Amino acid sequence: MANTPQPGTRERVVRAASLLMQRQGYEGTGIKQVAQEAKATLGSVYHFFPGGKQELGVAAVQHADQEFAELLSTSLSAEADPAKAVVACAGELARLLRDSGWVDGCPISATALETTGRAPDIEQAVAEAFQHWRDLVAGTLREAGFPEGDARDLAITVISTLEGAELTAQVAKSETPLRVAGEHLARLIDSYKR
Amino acid sequence: MANTPQPGTRERVVRAASLLMQRQGYEGTGIKQVAQEAKATLGSVYHFFPGGKQELGVAAVQHADQEFAELLSTSLSAEADPAKAVVACAGELARLLRDSGWVDGCPISATALETTGRAPDIEQAVAEAFQHWRDLVAGTLREAGFPEGDARDLAITVISTLEGAELTAQVAKSETPLRVAGEHLARLIDSYKR
DNA sequence: GTCTATATCTAGATAGAC
DNA sequence: GTCTATCTAGATATAGAC
């Protein structure tokens, strides 16, 4: 479990790239800026990512995938009732977004939108991340007794709605869209219990 | 009603900018590319937009705002029952996205995410667009007899969910997320009727 | 693995003739 | 209003010493 034995250069570069791309998007983030933020030299970045910016983009998305999956798992397991868990999750996203000064939204949305149809490697990493997150939600619902089909459909809408509400909250600089979405998702989930 | 008497240069530039930024984002779209796509010269672009790329970005977002508002109005008034109207709307978005080869998602999401916290003018135009769209949905719900508070909250979630489902559908290159979101939103809206 | 220096290209923006 | 030519800065990427 010891998981912070001083990060190596590669790890620092990936983290910096992931954070910057979350906030500025893929196109808006420069490799020099990543190197600077990671306290690495440009040569080191290209040493670890000979494929250049695209390869770095893929690594950044995969890193964000893992990080967000952990956040999701933790939030979802905070409550036994999945409806309440989703409310807690939305609340946690709202808190993190607000505390960041409204800059830390979904870690991969910007990159996803900018590269769709133009960078197949990144596109695939993004698709896998979304699938990963949906699977986590679907698993939670199945464990709570929801039938397979309902769990899958609800997972799609839970992730979609959280994504959209995070974007809306970021744009409006308000927690409200995420709070409201959480309550509405809980209501939707509960409507399947009957 | 005669509304296409051959667009002037300014109009062509705005349309091209709006379309390119929808597909590639703000950072990923070059002014030269906009000029070329609009069959205008670089000099003309700067003649109409002396404020440069930022000013052009604002105009592109405002244009997209109007266009999407019309799409929304048309879709929503296709059905008298607001729950059915939202399903129709989601279906229309899915159709347009698929027909574009999965490139034409929300016209301003990419720009919104890239410029948040970094270009106040664009940020504001984006915030106004989202508010505009929410108001349209809220108006539809009020006209159908929903009380003010419910209409406002539901409008927030309808727009948020459509945004997120469009992103999810685009990434997955599948209509399913939008179709499922439409059905779930209808279910949510109906749950307020009782 | 890390560093500096640099090559190459394209971006946003400007100038001034027409 | 439109055009071409050009400036400058910054981007991605590479080379080669250490």
From TrEMBL, chains A, B:
Task: Provide the alphabetized UniProt keywords.
Answer: DNA-binding, Transcription, Transcription regulation
Q: Does the keyword Iron-sulfur apply?
A: no
- DNA-binding region residues: the ranges are 30-49
Which residue ranges does the record assign to the HTH tetR-type domain? Answer: 7-67
| A Pfam family annotated for this UniProt entry | TetR_C_13_2
Q: Which PANTHER family match?
A: HTH-TYPE TRANSCRIPTIONAL REGULATOR LMRA, TRANSCRIPTIONAL REGULATORY PROTEIN
Q: What is the name listed in the Swiss-Prot or TrEMBL entry for this protein?
A: TetR/AcrR family transcriptional regulator
Q: Which organism is it from?
A: Streptomyces roseicoloratus
**High-level lineage:** Bacteria, Bacillati, Actinomycetota, Actinomycetes, Kitasatosporales
